Amino acid sequence: MDETVRGVGSGVEPVVPDGTTSAGNGEHAVDAPLGGGGTGTSRPEALAVGIDVGGTGVKAAIVDLSTGALASPRIREKTPSPSTPEAVADAIAHILEHIESTGHDTRGLTAGAGLPGVVKDGWLKTAANIDKSWLASRAEDILEQRLSRPVLIINDADAAGLAEMRYGAGVGHRGVVLMLTIGTGIGSALFVDGKLVPNTELGHLEFHRRDAETLVSGTARERRKLGWKAWAKEFDAYLDRVYRYFSPDLMILGGGVSKETKRYIQYLTPRGPLEVARLLNAAGIVGAALAAAEARGFRPPESAGVREIVAAG
Q1: pLDDT attached to residue 95
Q2: pLDDT exceeds cutoff 80 at 305
Q3: Strands 123-124, 47-53: parallel, antiparallel or unpaired by DSSP?
Q4: Which of 18-27, 192-201, 281-290 is the least confident region?
Q5: Residue 182 to residue 163: CA distance in whole angstroms
Q6: Are 257 and 56 in contact (CB under 8 A)?
Q7: What is the largest CA-CA distance in the chain?
């Protein structure tokens, strides 16, 4: 394995959450807070709700933006099928009710939602892993009406990248930083000297005459019944193409597959420094909350950073 690969076996280890439950019908799952803490220890202006809408799961939690830690349990429900705006909004509302039932008050908190597609002015302009009906209505309006609070939407991978740049593997890195989120699809977040270049969507690069994510996403690996070594060799070829296009000074791997890096990292041959996401797949929640709060004037301290990593499930 190339010596530039970092973040595995470096003391950042997943911790199995206490009290994790999953309903037999997939109704909801509860994870312990990331980094501990609760709403009673943070200034209200440093708290926001983060929502991560994916092709297979909808997740949310309260985030303490002074540290990047989750300040409530992380609640997950299966993405509704069909994943229409109304059905997803109902799922999010149910999740927030569940968070409230654990004793964490979300009232008055702004919310950010990461969605799988190109985001422009509160609209979802593409919908690769979510119902196409999202394209017909302004997504922010639908979510604000259903959740009775201000909501900002952002591309889900961009949200994860913002979290890693502020609190995780990207802290302090200048130049070109590229984060890939590997899960149902492949998302990307590109930063130049710390500034986000939004909506890059590199999972849709042509690869073997197909959208790359249809061959080398986490879901594609399962669908194709590939072992980790076989999958990693194909994913490595995809990474090589990304390196050729962007020559990143740092690459960060995140998303659901980031929890399994020990199964495949040794088969990758990166052309530059490669880090594993520190927030694992909680990054989308944290980054969505951060984007929403910053849009309303909040600025986290420069020293912010997650001190304890807890597996997000």
Answers
A1: 98
A2: no
A3: unpaired
A4: 18-27
A5: 16
A6: no
A7: 53
Backbone φ and ψ for 160, nearest 5 degrees, come out as -60, -40
> Residue 189 pairs with which residues in a beta bridge?
179
Domains and CATH numbers, the chain: 5-156 (3.30.420.40), 160-276 (3.30.420.40)
Sequence letter at residue 46: A
* Amino acid at site 159: A
Q: Which helix (H) or strand (E) holds 182?
A: strand 176-182
Average pLDDT over residues 191-203: 96
Q: Output the 3-class SS for 109-175.
A: CCEEEEECCCEECCEECCCCCCCHHHHHCCHHHHHHHHHCCCEEEEEHHHHHHHHHHHHCCCCCCCC
pLDDT digits (tens, 9 = 90+) for 98-115: 999 999 999 999 999 999
CB 59 within 8 A of CB 284: yes
User: What pTM was estimated for this model as a whole?
Assistant: 0.85
Other residues' Cβ atoms within 10 Å of the Cβ of residue 181: 34
SS3 89: helix
Dihedral sign for Cα 247, 251, 255, 258, please. Answer: positive
Rounded CA separation 167/171 (Å)? 6
